[in-house]
């Protein structure tokens, strides 16, 4: 029965990772997948995570199922991080949060929820966007359209075009925004632009879906929530898919959350029962370990302070690598201006390298970059900077 099945194309990002692993070149460099690396090229376990795990090991008493929506201590900690402590959304119980397997799990549950309860809605994603967005939404049968975002010539946000596109989105459709550290461009709206987007959203009546996968990697944990929090002042309903893969380094524990914000507590409770139905028929209930670690850290002042300083450490290292990358390219005699890279934020940079150049870098130098030219800046180190920039200068 399976003989007619054709092989699926490799995933554009994870497939690249597999190719990197199979490459025998001793000098190979992986700038594809969005995983943080330290100066030694390792993806470390955060100290706050290790300490939380030690505590959990001592006090954990059962491996019984969590409830469909996940652990209460985790769910409330997620809301505090998203909205800010004691926000009236929390005190009035206008939002409900479900613990999900990673940010991708949250997006998938959101997609199913939208398909079931807003069946006529089209999903709108930025052009460009994270490679998996389109597939996740299409996999449940949603129509996906794109709105203008990036000005490839100016290497900046084309805000006028973005506003013009979104002004065409009708009431009842859903628009996905990257909460911060836009993937793949590294370019976010300014506070003033977030304000204009929130006003437009309220005027048009479309539903915002915030994908918030990099809180803390841009300017800071609170600063990065500014776009989301601006929307809260103007828009009564929202979906938020958040993730702790990056800012806790908990990639393989699959820790995320889907939060639904409604106009009243009663509406939120009703809608949440339907979110739970989507989960029950999908993975039934979430895995426990990663979320228990996150809750232990977020709900403890000492561990929180340690975690915040570790997030700052990752953020600062990436910022430094951006500047070093630009300066090293200049020192190698590359005439093209790459200074825009130091202005972008988060893990990624849209380098402007063409698909041909990306292919050449891979073939001749064992340097792995996504075909769009997106570089995972978090993979740059003092050690790989010289060979990387020499190779780019060569091609
Ligand atoms: N959303 C964006 C924009 C991402 O870049 C990623 C991961 O790369 C995710 C969601 C999914 O994160 P997770 O690994 O938690 O599923």
Automatic annotation (TrEMBL):
GO MF term set: transaminase activity
Cofactor names: pyridoxal 5'-phosphate
Keyword Cell cycle included in the entry's annotation: no
Keywords: Aminotransferase, Pyridoxal phosphate, Transferase
Stored InterPro entries: Aminotransferase_I/II_large, Asp_trans, NHTrfase_class1_PyrdxlP-BS, PyrdxlP-dep_Trfase, PyrdxlP-dep_Trfase_major, PyrdxlP-dep_Trfase_small
Domain Aminotransferase class I/classII large: 27-392
Documented EC number(s): 2.6.1.-
Gene3D superfamilies assigned to the protein according to its UniProt record, in alphabetical order: Aspartate Aminotransferase, domain 1 (3.90.1150.10), Type I PLP-dependent aspartate aminotransferase-like (Major domain) (3.40.640.10)
Complexes and interactors: Homodimer.
NCBIfam families, alphabetized: PRK09257.1
Entry's family note: Belongs to the class-I pyridoxal-phosphate-dependent aminotransferase family.
Protein name (record): Aminotransferase
């Amino acid at each position: 029965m399976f003989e007619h099945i054709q092989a699926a194309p490799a995933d554009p990002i994870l497939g690249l990772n597999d190719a990197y692993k199979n490459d025998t070149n001793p000098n190979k460099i992986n700038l594809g997948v969005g995983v943080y690396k330290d100066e030694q090229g390792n993806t470390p376990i955060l100290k706050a995570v290790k300490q939380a795990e030690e505590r959990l090991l001592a006090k954990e008493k059962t491996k019984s199922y969590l409830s469909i929506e996940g652990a209460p201590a985790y769910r409330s900690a997620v809301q505090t991080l998203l909205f800010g402590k004691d926000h009236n959304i929390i005190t009035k119980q206008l939002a409900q949060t479900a613990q999900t397997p990673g940010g991708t799990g949250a997006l998938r549950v959101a997609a199913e929820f939208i398909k079931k309860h807003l069946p006529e809605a089209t999903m709108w994603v930025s052009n460009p966007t994270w490679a998996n967005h389109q597939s996740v939404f299409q996999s449940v049968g949603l129509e996906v359209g794109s709105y203008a975002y990036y000005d490839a010539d100016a290497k900046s946000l084309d805000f006028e075009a973005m506003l013009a596109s979104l002004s065409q989105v009708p009431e009842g459709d859903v628009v996905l925004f990257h909460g911060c550290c836009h993937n793949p461009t590294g370019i976010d709206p300014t506070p003033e632009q977030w304000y204009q987007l929130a006003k437009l959203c309220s005027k048009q009546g479309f539903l915002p879906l915030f994908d918030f996968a990099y809180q803390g990697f841009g300017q800071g944990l609170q600063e990065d929530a500014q776009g989301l929090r601006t929307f809260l002042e103007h828009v009564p309903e929202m979906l938020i898919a958040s993730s702790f893969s990056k800012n806790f380094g908990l990639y393989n524990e699959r820790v995320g959350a889907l939060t639904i914000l409604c106009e009243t507590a009663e509406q939120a409770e009703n809608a949440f029962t339907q979110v739970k139905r989507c989960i029950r028929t999908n993975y039934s209930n979430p895995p426990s370990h990663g979320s228990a670690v996150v809750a232990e850290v977020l709900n403890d002042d000492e561990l929180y302070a340690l975690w915040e300083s570790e997030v700052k450490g990752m953020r600062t290292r990436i910022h430094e690598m951006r500047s070093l990358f630009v300066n090293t390219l200049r020192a190698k005699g590359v005439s093209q201006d790459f200074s825009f890279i130091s202005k972008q934020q988060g893990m990624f940079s849209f380098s402007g390298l063409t698909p041909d150049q990306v292919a050449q870098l891979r073939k001749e130098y064992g340097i792995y970059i996504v075909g769009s030219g997106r570089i995972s800046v978090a993979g740059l180190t003092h050690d790989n900077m010289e060979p990387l920039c020499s190779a780019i200068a060569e091609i």
